[in-house]
Design goal:
Elements (H helix, E strand, L loop, with lengths): L1 H5 L13 E4 L4 E3 L1 H4 L14 E4 H4 L11
Antiparallel strand pairs: 1-2, 1-3
Bound molecules: zinc ion (2 copies).
The site of one zinc ion (ZN) has 8 residues, from helix 2.
Protein backbone atom coordinates (compact mmCIF):
# COMPACT_ATOMS: atom_id res chain seq x y z
CA UNK A 1 0.00 0.00 0.00
CA UNK A 2 2.88 2.35 0.70
CA UNK A 3 3.97 2.13 -2.91
CA UNK A 4 0.49 2.87 -4.22
CA UNK A 5 0.03 5.88 -1.98
CA UNK A 6 3.38 7.53 -2.51
CA UNK A 7 4.35 6.79 -6.10
CA UNK A 8 3.03 8.85 -8.96
CA UNK A 9 4.66 6.90 -11.77
CA UNK A 10 3.05 4.09 -13.73
CA UNK A 11 3.33 0.78 -11.85
CA UNK A 12 4.29 -1.10 -15.02
CA UNK A 13 6.83 1.07 -16.84
CA UNK A 14 7.73 3.28 -13.85
CA UNK A 15 8.43 6.02 -16.36
CA UNK A 16 5.21 7.81 -17.31
CA UNK A 17 2.84 9.47 -14.88
CA UNK A 18 -0.28 7.50 -13.91
CA UNK A 19 -3.25 8.60 -15.96
CA UNK A 20 -5.64 5.64 -16.04
CA UNK A 21 -8.12 4.31 -13.49
CA UNK A 22 -9.02 0.64 -13.96
CA UNK A 23 -12.50 -0.78 -13.46
CA UNK A 24 -13.91 -2.54 -11.53
CA UNK A 25 -11.09 -2.36 -8.96
CA UNK A 26 -10.63 1.43 -9.31
CA UNK A 27 -6.86 1.25 -8.99
CA UNK A 28 -4.96 4.24 -10.36
CA UNK A 29 -1.65 2.61 -11.21
CA UNK A 30 -1.07 2.79 -14.98
CA UNK A 31 -0.21 5.24 -17.74
CA UNK A 32 -2.20 5.44 -20.97
CA UNK A 33 0.22 3.38 -23.04
CA UNK A 34 0.57 0.55 -20.51
CA UNK A 35 -3.15 0.41 -19.77
CA UNK A 36 -3.83 -0.68 -23.35
CA UNK A 37 -1.49 -3.67 -22.94
CA UNK A 38 -2.78 -5.21 -19.73
CA UNK A 39 -5.75 -7.52 -19.21
CA UNK A 40 -5.62 -7.47 -15.45
CA UNK A 41 -4.68 -4.92 -12.83
CA UNK A 42 -0.94 -5.16 -12.04
CA UNK A 43 -1.69 -4.27 -8.44
CA UNK A 44 -4.51 -6.64 -7.49
CA UNK A 45 -4.77 -8.94 -10.58
CA UNK A 46 -8.45 -8.16 -11.08
CA UNK A 47 -9.48 -8.61 -14.75
CA UNK A 48 -9.88 -5.19 -16.36
CA UNK A 49 -13.35 -4.47 -17.68
CA UNK A 50 -12.87 -0.82 -18.56
CA UNK A 51 -10.39 2.02 -18.18
CA UNK A 52 -10.83 5.71 -17.53
CA UNK A 53 -8.09 8.08 -18.61
CA UNK A 54 -7.87 10.97 -16.18
CA UNK A 55 -5.67 12.93 -18.57
CA UNK A 56 -8.81 13.74 -20.56
CA UNK A 57 -11.56 13.91 -17.98
CA UNK A 58 -10.02 15.82 -15.07
CA UNK A 59 -11.39 19.04 -16.51
CA UNK A 60 -14.90 17.57 -16.49
CA UNK A 61 -14.90 17.17 -12.74
CA UNK A 62 -13.94 13.51 -12.64
CA UNK A 63 -13.14 12.33 -9.12
CA UNK A 64 -10.69 9.51 -8.53
CA UNK A 65 -11.99 6.68 -6.44
CA UNK A 66 -10.02 4.05 -4.55
CA UNK A 67 -11.02 0.85 -2.85
CA UNK A 68 -10.38 1.21 0.84
ZN1 LIG B 1 3.33 2.79 -18.07
ZN1 LIG C 1 -6.60 -3.29 -9.01
Amino acid sequence: MLYLETATKCMKCEENNRTVTLAPCNHYVLCDSCATTVRECPYCQTPVQSQTSTSNVFCNGFVMRFNS
